[in-house]
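Hey all, quick one. A colleague (J.T.) asked me to put the NAP job into the tracker so the inputs and the structure tokens live in one place instead of scattered across chat threads. No bug as far as I know, just bookkeeping. Sequence used:
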Amino acid sequence: MYRNKFKKKKVFIITGASRGIGRALSAELARSDSTLFLIARNKIMLEKVIEEIGQNTCAKSILFDLRKTKQLEKIVEDIFMQVDFKEIESITLINNAGIISPITLAGGFKLEDAVDNLKVNCIVPIILSDIFIRKTKDFKGKKIILNISSDAAKTPKEGLSLYCSSKSAVEMFSQCVSREQSRYKYGVTIYTFSPGAVDTHMFSELTKKAKEDLPNVDSYVLLSNSGSLKHPRKVAKEINRFIREKLDT
Ligand SMILES: NC(=O)c1ccc[n+]([C@@H]2O[C@H](COP(=O)([O-])OP(=O)(O)OC[C@H]3O[C@@H](n4cnc5c(N)ncnc54)[C@H](OP(=O)(O)O)[C@@H]3O)[C@@H](O)[C@H]2O)c1
């Protein structure tokens, strides 16, 4: 199965690639010198993304529920077995997958939903980063981790306390690891990127909530109706520019 190892120069691992920002970003990163490993649960949507990317880029879909955190190490191992590290110049992990639910005030959480939120938004990017750092220790090319963050990491929002705090934790994690890794000659560089308000499934979930769960729901509806939400493709271009700049320096 792994006999034909991918030998393109830039490798990207993107979580949450089946829709929204991750989907647009996968299409944006697709170049003839790139290899993409795309992770999400929805098979049909991921296949569409691969189709969209076309034939010029190596793109492989990995159907996986990130909440299965015990299997994360194996997922990364499987990916790395397909990468010929002698042939590539960079490897980039983009922790993009995220969930906004449960959208409700503290006091009304269901344990399972709260755990899912913290897992997908916080534990997964942290553990994937940890595995990535460990398993690329001997690789001397560029190593980048980009954690997709949010203004919510810095601005308290009623009804979104889990989302805000999970994003906030990843911001601080990224800052700590950035300092740690700067001690090494061949360390990983880790960044966060806040895309602003984007017209995706995630944002539409906000507009459907009741005031008792999301007291400021009107402001989200207003924002959505005003036409000022960013298109995922625009954000994907911004992220692509950001990453390419880091890869080229
Ligand atoms: N939209 C905004 O306004 C906005 C603003 C700031 C930050 N962000 C951040 O941007 C990132 C992308 O958000 P988006 O707006 O593009 O959201 P989205 O359209 O809802 O897409 C979320 C992606 O995450 C994947 N995902 C969710 N749970 C998963 C799981 N358990 N296992 C594997 N994949 C999972 C989904 O794929 P499957 O369902 O196929 O698994 C999907 O591809 C998130 O980190 C979000 O916090 C978004």
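Adding what we noticed when we looked at it: Residues 10-197+231-248 form a domain with the Rossmann fold fold (CATH 3.40.50.720). Helices lie at 20-29, 43-53, 72-81, 111-135, 161-181, 201-207, 217-225, 232-248.
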